[in-house]
Amino acid sequence: MNTNKSGSLLHPYIRVMNASSCDKLDFYMYNTMIAAGMEYGKAGKYTKCERGLTTFRVQSAGDSVKQCANLAIRLETGNVFTICAVGTREQMRLYAIAEPTERKNLEYGHLRICNLWPESERINVSTKGTCFVGGLRFSDVTRYIEMQPGNYGISIIDANENRPLLEAGEQSVRPGKFNSLYILPPPNENAAPTALYTVDAASYEGFYL
Predict the structure, then answer these.
(1) What is the pTM of this model?
(2) Largest Cα–Cα distance in the chain?
(3) pLDDT of 22-38, one tens digit each?
């Protein structure tokens, strides 16, 4: 087994993601803007943080008055979180999704699925005709699943009706890399859900992200 525990980060880190149905959002840490006009379906780079209780908020881009949602989390050295804005402008929430940084079984690729589609029923995730994640509900996050390196076409299917919901495209799974596939809600009532594929913190080695 190829194991390299990466517990040596010198700071906490976060990145932000617009998984809401709003086209553009401004993200703040305390009163400092850390992402301006982030578009739907986008994620930012990792941002170094200080230790301690840290507050985040999100607002419609360019609106410095009306706050859409806020979140306070305690950050410690080595913590990594993806802070996701989910919902509509009127009913928005911020979720902090933890990113483990332990690196092991590096001969495999590693993939987890995160369901950020509030209106979804239970969903299954399949590749090459085989279901490898079943019955995910909104806000469910799987563990990292070890996969043979290669390219995988990933499909999202309604678990109740076995009905295709989304073709998430062909994604590259590489040895020693850790990825997440985020299932996002439709950006509007006439659109389909989408997916965002990210490279996660455990993919990096060293003291800094």
Answers:
(1) 0.94
(2) 53
(3) 999 999 999 999 999 99
Nearest-CA neighbor of 120 among 140, 142, 98?
140
pLDDT in tens, 71-83: 999 999 999 999 9
Q: Which residues of 136-157 are buried (b: 16+ CB within 10 A; e: fewer)?
A: bebebbbebeebeeeebebbbb
**72: closest CA among 95, 46, 38?**
95
Relative to beta strand 24-29, strand 3-5 is unpaired
Which tokens is 98 given? 């933890």
The phi, psi pair for 203, rounded to 5°, reads -70, -20
- pLDDT tens digits, one per residue of 77-101: 999 999 999 999 889 999 999 999 9
Strand ranges, E, within 30-91: 32-39, 47-48, 52-60, 67-75, 80-87
